[in-house]
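User: Fold this; tokens only.

Assistant: Input:
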Amino acid sequence: MGDTIFSKIIRREIPADIVHEDDDVVGFRDINGQAPTHILFIPRKPIATLNDLEAADATLIGKLVLAATAYAKAEGFAEKGYRCVINCNEDGGQSVYHLHLHLLAGRQLTWPPG
């Protein structure tokens, strides 16, 4: 996997509005938000896409989801609702090839999303 904008955020080479950080996961506001709350949660470990996950990454993916749900609860919109999305490759809407989970909230989210 090549160097990405997310890798640069992790290394603090470019600024980001970071809202969560631990040993495995970083969460920051999306600069092109699609909802009033749009946070990206990324693993520190560079994984390009969902297709590149291995069995050993199961705990890490769980940590991404747990970080997102903890943020939703802490910010007070968990009960009203939110959406978590992981896009995979071009047709799936992925534009940065560093696995990331989108947390969207703060408005009615319709279905289908595309």
